[in-house]
Design brief:
By secondary structure, the protein is α+β, with helices and mostly antiparallel strands. Helices cover 38% and strands 24% of the residues. Bound molecules: ligand DP6.
Length: 320
Amino acid sequence: MSSATAIAHPNIALVKYWGKANTEYNIPATPSLSIALSALTTETTVSENDSDQVVINGLLVADKKINLWLERLRQEIELPSLTITSESNFPVSAGLASSASGFAALTEAISSAFDLGWDIKQKTDWARRGSASAARSVTGAWSTLVPLASDHPTIDSCDTTQIHDESYWDLAVVVAITDDTPKLFSSTIGMELSRATSDYYSSWVSSTHRDFTSALNAVAQKDFQTLAEIADFSCRKMHALMLSSIPAMMYWNSTTLDCIQVIKKLIAQKLPVFFTIDAGPQVKTICPPDLTDTVLERLAQVSGVKKLLQSKIGGGARSI
Ligand code: DP6
């Protein structure tokens, strides 16, 4: 009986992916840049069984995304029925990129259990088909996800690259959990709503291409200040786009706003720190490691913060 276990870290985007150029192959409309979080992990085991079963954090679930992904995979390769067991050490479906680490670990585990011999390109392409940000968790550390221009997109019309490993730039991330219940709009649904309804969508896509190029330069020069400004801008533009969609998507809560005020005060004191927020109410603060205690201490004073997590930059998905 074939079986394998893999682990992967979620990642947070500093230049955001929001919007799809192609839904069949899940090709993003925007290039994105992310860092993986070493302290947060998803561990996934796949093993042959009599029927498909998905167990996430101890609960048997009907996961449409995983089922569709398996269906598509089985159109390409022969696979037996599987039990997929996945455990994460952080809240799932709450804007903490659990689908990114989930599909990255699942892809790695399947590749290993059935000796598929997938190279990194095939792993990132299949993980991306499950959830596009998962491709960046396959490569981990500092990763880019870039759509490749094509009139007839296929599964490989996208590039995922680890541009630097986890030791490149010693930065810390503090995650303020302000609500750990699942989000109202999944990213998949939310970004299709933005594409179909927001007047700002095309400016979002074109300006993200510019932000991406500037962010790559900032990372190459370890220019924290410039990276902070671009990440802040990309985050604000994505949330403005969400708000301008019909129906409007507002992922923040009042504690999210209080955390933002706290970080803004640190920025006003000229401290090297910035925050970013994905499709959920959690606030992710990035700073040099020697500022972690200050950030933790300030965010701990915000009433409504349920939990604070701290992390360094982590690597890619791997079999264990
Ligand atoms: C806001 O990768 O979860 O976190 O491809 O539809 O599964 P699907 O979307 P997903 O979207 C992530 C959106 C984001 C920004 C980002 O990670 O770049």
